[in-house]
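Internal ticket #5521
Category: modeling
Description: The requester needs a full-assembly model to guide mutagenesis choices. All entity lines are attached below as received. Residue total reported by intake: 871.
Assigned to: D.W.
Attached entities:
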Amino acid sequence: MTLHALRPSRRHVLQGSAGLVLALALPPFGRAQEGAPKPVPIMPNAFVVIAPDDTVTILSKHLEMGQGPWTGLATLVAEELDADWAQIRVAHAPGDPKLYENLLFGAQLTGGSTAIANSYMQMRRAGAAARAMLVKAAAEAWNVPESEIAVQDGQISHLPSSRRAGFGAFAAAAAKLPAPQNVKLKDPKDFRLIGKDLRKPDTLAKSTGAALFTQDIREPDMVVAVVAHPPRFGGKAASVDDREARSIAGYLGHAVIAQGVAVYARSTWPAILARNSLKIAWDETSAFRKGTKAIEAEYRAIAEKPGQVAAKRGDASARLANARETIEQTFVFPYLAQAPMEPLDAVVKFDGESALCHFGSQGPTIDQFAIAKALGIAADKVRIEVALAGGSFGRRAQAAGDFAVEAASCAKAYGKPVPVKLVWTREDDLRGGFYRPFYVHRMRGAVGPDGAITGWSHTIVGQSIMAGTPMEKNMVKNGVDESSVEGAVDLPYRIADFQCDLHTVKQGVPVLWWRSVGHTHTAFATETMIDILLEKVGKDPIDGRLALLDPSSREAGVLKEVKALARWKGRREGDKAYGVAMHKSFNTYVAQVAEVTKDGEGAPKVTRVWCAVDCGVAVNPNVIRAQMEGGIGYGLGHALYASIDLDDSGRVVQSNFDAYRSLRINEMPAVEVAIVRSQAAPTGVGEPGVPPIAPAVANAWRALTGVVVTRLPFGKGGLA
Amino acid sequence: MRLTVNGSTAEVDADPATPLLWVLRDELGLTGTKFGCGMAQCGACTVHIDGMARRACVTPLSAVGDSQVTTIEGVSGRVADAVRKAWLALDTPQCGYCQPGQVMSAVALLSVAPRPDDKAIDEGMAGNLCRCAAYVRIRAAIHDAAKSLEG
């Protein structure tokens, strides 16, 4: 049977005829053989490919994992190119740090909500440069002055001689011209695409099943690998008995690798069956054998003493010692898995000298070097094609390229020059570590005789995400990992005596950034604590916060915006309660109000959320709203239901979505988003929608029940 | 084993216990149906079997028999067109990985409940996880599709 018999013709929304040019410039996976013709120059620059049929393909240096960079980066280019949005296509740029580095990191990396922030000027210049070259080529061909050429909606025209042409007509000539050194960018008042709700270029393929993710890659001779991972972190495979697996049709063999036991099969199901049938003896001499109960007890004890000072003004300890009244709260945050819908995966073909890799990579530069090291070849012998990622939330960016290395190790151990596709199951994903670290926060606040909040002490205990990684140099200063305290050291409220300190604790559980990183826990601690203190001194949660902020600040701006949006009347209205939280992360300011009631079982039910966001220039309001909606859902689901626990012997308890509960549609509140008008440089929106929702809901829950939420998750089954 | 998918019948060389999901993806190349959990918890593998939404990851090939299997690649008709149109108009997908399953569940829902209220949407769609939490738009798109089918 042929594939064509079953597969209706697909609309190649991401390929079309522009694919022809791309195919020359970027050989699709499997065809970049040695000795193949050198790629033709991408024209007119590394980000813009113009095809003879006038389609323009923008190469995105950032990974599209749902957060919208394909739309955002293409908008910036199309704006300055004066293209028609309908002619725009988008594809991922390949791994190449020289061409496609994140200008804020110096490596090709998607993270920290920086895609738009670092590309805003660069992509506009790329569009403007391509436009200038097309204009020059048209002027030469028509023998008219450049100044008489106009470009609008993808059409190049010379009015005096009534000549018109599309971009494709001059693309070849333009590509031969030198790239202009200086280009004039538009005045923002002339923007035609930036600020508009342009349709996302990836929507159609994602709605028809045509969008290809790494899991979907199929190649002739491809082998599927699954890996049996050790039952505890730090374990190693000692011996393997695969007698049972040998009777499974399609099973091709196994290999012991550093990460566990690689199991190979012709396709995925026999690989999973074979893995289940292996009898593996694990060497657990270095295994981590502590449970989260013991970790919590340890952290609670440590939190009683101040840690390494991360930020300080005035003298918080003296103020707390002498205050008329102090309030103390300890908050506990669990390990969390990012759990993207697409389990981790990567395809690697290794012929002994070079490797061709294809997967959704947040950090192609890191992965390229890590794969090269694992394979024992030079980095320039590793080529990475970037695939769409079915979510990530940080999981596909690893400081040591761990899952890319696992895929490379599988390919190397297989020993044949065929593509090997590493497939993780959900169990691998949830038990595979690289979690948002477990944290305990001890907060103390002092209230003065006049009802003013006068002192604030914030002690954080947990693992460092950056320690031991190449980021340590920049991110860990004086023993303080900035990502452990971000959002806590820069508390925006005017409190005279303030201190934030940190205890960094080592554990054998691998940890990683998780959508909004440190803000996932610091925002909860700070925004719950300030709300408790304001209640104590009899202030309204919004007006009380505003009184502690500069009225012209962007923090105050989003609070005022959300107050109006929610038609705020206070914390209670009948059987409904309202909670607010405001937090800046990645230079984007977000305030949210949550409406919370009790469901039939007495658990919190979040019915509505109002959200105000200030992310500078709103490049695509449609994407910004989507990211706020999704960020609220992601944050809420984890705040109510999600926890990764280790039993007392160090084994991860949860292994699938039955136990690692995720927000479902019946638990999603209605969301209304207001975008604050701003001319400030644009900042990211992928993460900043997440931090405020948990404290906003917790503050509403306290208003409803009087109960302070001191540990997450606190929804059904998670209530203390 | 014989299998009828998207109107075509195919001979499939697979163990009868193999989940339909892996036959579709690995044997037939119909990769629109996604692997998310392997235990009917996430709905990314939702297909129609004789028009009803089913999780392909826990449906063994042997249970399919002569039934008609429809995947995201083959789903068609008035309801499917309305759902897809509504999905596009709202730019519903974020990462997109769960969306084929969402679309298949939405089509199945609207086929039996042409004008679902929010509660019916909750019941019909609660088995489909979206880790991006694009639920606001999924709900709105289903309402929009229902409206367009009335007109």
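Resolution: model delivered.
Comment from assignee: The two ends of chain B are 43 Å apart (CA to CA).
Ticket closed.
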